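dumping this here before i forget
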Amino acid sequence: MHDSWQHYADEHIRTVDTMSAVLLFAMFLFGSELNVPHGPRPDVGPTIALAAVSCAALLWQRSRPRTVVLVTAVVAAGAGALGCLLTPLTLGPLMLALYRLAVLTRRRTARRYFFASVVLVVGAATAVDPAHHPWPFRTVGPVAWLLLPVVAGNALRLREAYLEAVRARAEYAERGREEEARHRVAEERMRIARELHDVVAHHLALAHAQAGTAAHLARTHPDQVRKILTELAGTTSSALREMKGTVGLLRRPDDPGTPLAPSPGLAQLAELTGSFVSTGLTVTVTTEGERRPLSPGVDLTAYRIVQEALTNVGKHATTQSAHVRLRYSHDRLTVTVTDDGAEAVTAAVPVPGHGFGLIGMRERARSVGGALRAGHRVEGGFEVTTELPLYPSTPRPEESAS
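structure:
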């Protein structure tokens, strides 16, 4: 019921203000007839004129609230000077004007106009009172009746301000959730893109090297070609499996399909290094320190960095050997991949035709709170070193430059 009335009032403001003015006009005339026993009655003509002026001014209560308060206060003072008893009936227009002023303006403004109205009305009723009303009817009563709409208007204004603040906070929180969701989607896309890059770059480079080796040996050593082609089939099969597992991350939970295989890690390092044998690259692995358990994220990151570094060695370095060193400390894992080739990747920043391998490795290391360095060795060749926390927390704000 209240909501429907409020909705009607919001849509028919002029009608509501007119009805209020008419109602208060009738109440003013009725209130002017009330008086103390055996007291004189005020003149009807001036009373009607005052009521008409006061209630007509209420039609501008929303656009000119200060002016309406002044007009209705002067009318109320005139009614008191005529001998009208100052009750909510005769003070109704002024009470409504003070209420509207308290709703539409600041508390300080409403307080000033309230005190000015009290001084004007009480002063006139006290100085000129032909009916000789008791002093509480001329002082305490008007102050109490005029204070009530000011308090109610301030309370409504504060409530609306509170509700507006709640709505603003809710909208801000909603925008924050949407931004966080978009940020997580972007991060997931980048992660899947890195996975696809590592899988495709490694296996295609390996398959290309195996195919080239098989073509080179087809005439001179045909007996070795069958073995290389068998390894090539295994390479392509492994690539398809890993790509299926990576792209399967985009599958909806209710989509049919076989369960995804677990992510690779350093436990598959021997299989990874063995896949380079057919390309003519021999990889040796050494481990320093006591092996420590790794989180899935760090384990996958270490594996992908080694995979990408060895792939770069196979594509860019003129060498037949590479070395992988794993060094465990109490809280970190240091992975170093080196080669002694005469040529290597020459820049950490990709140039046309050189891909994004080093950038991807740096992003992987940073995503688990680690750091990565890559550059030429003084004694020749190229070296990639990454330090990864055993128990990742927050990413480092900076990482060492190559």
